[in-house]
Each structure stands twice: as C-alpha cells, then as structure tokens.
Amino acid sequence: MTPLTLNLDQVNLSHEQFYQLCQNNRNLNFERTAQGELIIMPPVGGDSGNREADLIIDLGIWNRQTNLGYIFSSSTVFILPNGANRSPDVAWIRQERYAALTPEQRQKFPPIAPDFVIELRSATDDLKMLHNKMQDSMDAGVQLAWLINPQQQQVEIYRLGKEVEVQDLPAELSGEEILPGFRLSLPRYL
User: Fold this and answer.
1) How far apart are CA 181 and CA 91, in angstroms?
2) How does pLDDT run across 94-107, given as a tens digit for each residue?
3) How deeply is 135 buried, as exposed, middle or buried, from its count of CB atoms within 10 A (0-12, 13-18, 19+)?
4) How far apart are the first and last CA of the chain?
C-alpha cells in the first residue's frame, strides 16, 4: 500500500483544523507538506515496525544515560516552522528546547522542529516522497537526519547547511556533535 497524497493548497487548513482532522480519524496517519499537500500514510509491516522500535530503543538507551533530550515515535506530529506537519520514524529534541514549549503545545502537535530525525524506508515507501520529507525537515531547521534505506543498502546523512552524504553499507553511524557519544550499529537495519 502506498501513501495517498491529496492537494489541499486551496483549502488552507489551519494547524488546529489539521489537528482535529487527525483526532477525528485516529485510525489513519496524516502528514502535511510545506506546500499544503495532505499525505495519508499506510501502516508499516512487521519487519519495518520492529526495526523502527529497535531504533527508538538504541537512541533511548543513549538518551537515558545522557539525559540530554526527549525521544518521539512516528506517532508524533510536529508542526514545523515551514508549515509542514511531519511525523519522522524517530525524532529527538534537546531538553531545553522542548521544555521551553508550553504545556498545551506539548499536549497537541508540538510546534517545533526536532534536532535529529531518522527515517527508515520500508519496502512500500516511495524514495522520492522520503527525499521530500527529509528536505522539509532540513528546511525547518533539523540539525542532523538519517534516511536508512535497506532496499539499496545505503544511508543518506543530512546535515543542516551541507550537501547530503550517501554511504553504502556503513557499519556504524555517529550522532556527531548533535548527539554526543551516540553510535548506531547498522547491520541489523540494512
């Protein structure tokens, strides 16, 4: 099953209307591009869901040891500064940035770009759509992002203000200065 994209550029849903659309249709996963397109995301299969959970666990163990921020699953929608509403597979925000949000902002869709995101391409994901999603994230100020692509045995590394780096079959990824000391062993994800 592939995502369904609806052109809603003439509808101009407010952030509150988009939130209510999601709340009224909890059995569906929605995202919205910076251009106003509504994307209805299909659920992932068992293998992709398991790998996504492992990514959250790996990042979570590091985060519990460092206590530097907050981790979010793919169920979290972020209101990005560029107008997009995106749900990365894994997201991380520095503690002081997330704590600066009001309780109401944290309760609904947080109006903040994560500092770090991971997208794990599933067998049914369209690579062009994922590239657009990664570009939305970078345009919104995400500092570091990884697109893990098991189908092509590659990882694309996005850094704010820099060209995308593509690595074939890397053994490990570094969180660099964004996630100091975080290392992700990749063989089980590729």
Assistant:
1) 17
2) 999 999 999 999 99
3) middle
4) 21
Quickly count: other Cβ atoms within 10 Å of residue 111's Cβ. Answer: 15
Report residue 104: phi and psi, to 5°: -65, -40
The amino acid at residue 157 is I
Q: Distance between CA 112 and CA 98 in Å, rounded?
A: 8
CA distances from 56 to 61, 111, 124, 181 (A): 9, 21, 21, 16
Cα 15 to Cα 21, 27, 111, 129, distances in angstroms: 10, 19, 9, 22
pTM: 0.92
- Distance in angstroms (rounded) separating the CA atoms of residues 34 and 32: 7
Cβ–Cβ contacts within 10 Å for residue 86, how many? 27
What the block records as the tokens of 145 is 């992002």
